[in-house]
Amino acid sequence: MLKVDGHVHTPFCPHGSKDSFEMYVERAIALDYSAITFTEHAPLPEGFVDTTPDQDSGMDPSRLSEYFDALDILKEKYKDKIIILSGLEVDYIDGFEKESAEILTTYGPRMDDSILSVHFLQHRGKWDCLDFSPDVFGSMVDDYGSVDAVYARYYETVLKSTRADLGVYKPKRIGHITLVKKFQKLFPASQSFSDEISLILQEMAGRDLELDYNGAGFVKPHCGESYPPQDVITQARAMGIKIVYGSDAHTADGLDQGRALMK
């Protein structure tokens, strides 16, 4: 079986490291990977205002062509050693489907693979990046009224992402579907939300979408498990959903994170 990492960030990440593409690729080769997908954060849709302090959640749109050009060079350079796929991690932002589809229509022909993820939630007209920090998550709990209310909105939004019409280049893989649990040791929910997760998986199975088995949660001090955890992976496999490991690495050293703990 091929050893694949389908979720890797790059020096083009505005909130990541400056580790070079070559550092990522050489480490992947050393770890015996057969293929990796570079999935840099796509530019946020036009008209949406990034709520993070440095407004660095997505790539500058002016750098997209440069990004794909760099990957074309990388593919040629390492063609005899590892399969390199060009991709993006696209934010699903409720209400901005048209703008997101425009980005995908423009750059979709250059993508070999891609991920659709939820990071931003809206409540009473206010947007928050739910995984930015414990402080931001805590303020969301105050605004929403409870931890469970934040979880409910998150899973509702992930479900919408599976159903959203983003055009022919809509990403086929849904990213870290339990990201809302990043700070679960600080803000535990009172329930499992298993019904909501099951509904998401049913939609994914019906639409032939893949699931990002994301190892980053294992190294997050307030999470301690993969996104999603093993019981959800077992359920997804039983439903015939394709599972793709993703390190979600933002540094070369981050490749392979959590993989040894996965089944």
Descriptive notes:
With 263 residues, the protein is an alpha/beta fold. It has seven helices and nine strands; from the N terminus they run βαβαβαβββααβαβαβ. It has helices spanning 21-30, 64-77, 97-107, 134-144, 147-163, 194-206, 230-238, and strands spanning 4-8, 35-41, 83-91, 113-117, 120-123, 126-129, 173-174, 210-214, 243-246. The strands form two sheets. Strands 1-2-3-4-7-8-9 form a seven-stranded parallel beta sheet. It has a two-stranded antiparallel ribbon with strand order 5-6. Strand 2, helix 2 (64-77) and strand 3 (83-91) form a beta-alpha-beta unit. Helix 5 (147-163) packs parallel to helix 6. The longest helix has 17 residues, at 147-163. The model has no long low-confidence stretch (mean pLDDT 97).
**Quaternary assembly:** single chain
Cα distance, first to last residue? 14 Å
Strand content: 15-25%
Overall pLDDT metric: 97
Order of helices and strands: EHEHEHEEEHHEHEHE
- Structural class call reads alpha/beta
Helix percentage range: 25-40%
Query: Spatial order of the strands in the main sheet?
Result: 1-2-3-4-7-8-9
What's the main sheet like?
Answer: 7 strands, parallel
Shape: globular
Radius of gyration computed on alpha carbons: 17 Å
Q: What is the strand tally?
A: 9
The unreliable regions are: none
Count the helices. How many?
7
Core attributes:
single chain; 263 residues; alpha/beta; two-stranded antiparallel ribbon; 7 helices; 9 strands; globular
